[in-house]
Amino acid sequence: MNMATFKQTQPLLEGGVDLPLFHQRLPPQKEKVLIVLGATGTGKSRLSIDLATHFPAEIINSDKMQVHKGLDITTNKITPEESQGIPHHLFSVIDPNVDFTATNFCNLASTSLQSITSREQLPIIVGGSNSFVEALVDDKNKKFRSKYECCFLWVDVSIPILHSFLSDRVDRMLERGLINEVRAMFNPNNDPDLYSRGIFKAISVPELDHYFRMEPFLDKKGRARVLEKAVKDIKINTCKLAYQQLEKIHKLKNVKKWKLHRLDATDVFKKRGKDADEAWENHVMEPSIRTVGRFLYN
Ligand code: ATP
After folding, report:
1. Whose CA is nearest to atom 24 of ligand 1?
2. What is the CATH number of domain 31-162+248-297?
3. Which of 30, 64, 82, 201 maximizes the CB count within 10 A of its CB?
4. Cβ < 6 Å from ligand 1: which residues?
5. Where in the chain is the domain with CATH 1.10.287.890?
6. Which of the four pLDDT bands, split at 50, 70 and 90, describes residue 1?
């Protein structure tokens, strides 16, 4: 007998205890999805890769800049070595000057979700574009929630500690060649409207525009001064982005009532070398593995 259509007609206990009858079909089993949230720089990517080496999983990017081709340093994409062979979806797939909307994200992410779950892998959605994740999860007709069961991890780092890390990260990006990467996309005839489209919105592209325009007309000292101002703006705007992302996560938690499992990674950023790795294990990895294990297997 198919349990799903079993219809109870007799009292279950002697004495006619009035028990509820269940004769509806069982709801279809929901697929599981892990969603990793966190401001830029908190270690979301590292966590998702660590988890994907621990559970059978594939990663879907939800960063609206990293979805575009190009500017790998500027948008802080993970390197092939860092990805450790874990399949990544929606990375570097959209042309640089094409705007990528929340609707585009929902459509492509849904296709990736279906293909990942059909391979019986856990999809891990990770990235900083919380408005995209919100549009996907809280769609108007509640289709996503009816199909998928979500587990949310939130990697959190205290803002002053994160700001100092982000400022250093910009310096490291400069060392890795951020300026030449952005310069390759610069054209003095660029329409100012371009900076409101596609990857041209990425932090660093508008900030460096003035420097590239002025560069040919300035002496060494003048160039250094204008570049210094651009770098300062890049750092300020990166910190502002982190703050806005955090505000949005608080809204998802407190207003939208998303059940977020918060992982405090602050200690990781206060330490160096082996101590930092140990803090990562204790404060981020272990609690995440426990949470995801319960989510998947309980
Ligand atoms: P909203 O769309 O409502 O602004 P959001 O959370 O989707 O919210 P974010 O993804 O945080 O928006 O991006 C906001 C802006 O931050 C982008 O338009 C871009 O300027 C900048 N930004 C976001 N991610 C990156 C990135 N990886 N590299 C560089 N700049 C980025």
Report:
1. 65
2. 3.40.50.300
3. 64
4. 63-66, 75-76, 128-132, 201-203, 241, 245, 248
5. 165-236
6. very low
The residue count for the chain: 298
Helices 220-254 and 159-176 pack at an angle, to 10 degrees, of: 140
Which atom of ligand 1 lies at the shortest distance from residue 132's CA? Answer: 7
**Sorting pLDDT into bands at 50, 70 and 90, what band is 194?**
confident
Q: How far is ligand 1, taken at its centre, from the CA of residue 241, in Å?
A: 7
Which of 185, 203, 238 should be mutated for ligand 1, with most atoms under 8 A from CB?
203
- Residues contacting residue 189 through CB under 8 Å, at least 6 positions apart: none
Banded pLDDT at 75 (limits 50, 70, 90): very high
Architecture of domain 165-236: Orthogonal Bundle (1.10)
* pLDDT tens string 222-245: 999 999 999 999 999 999 999 999
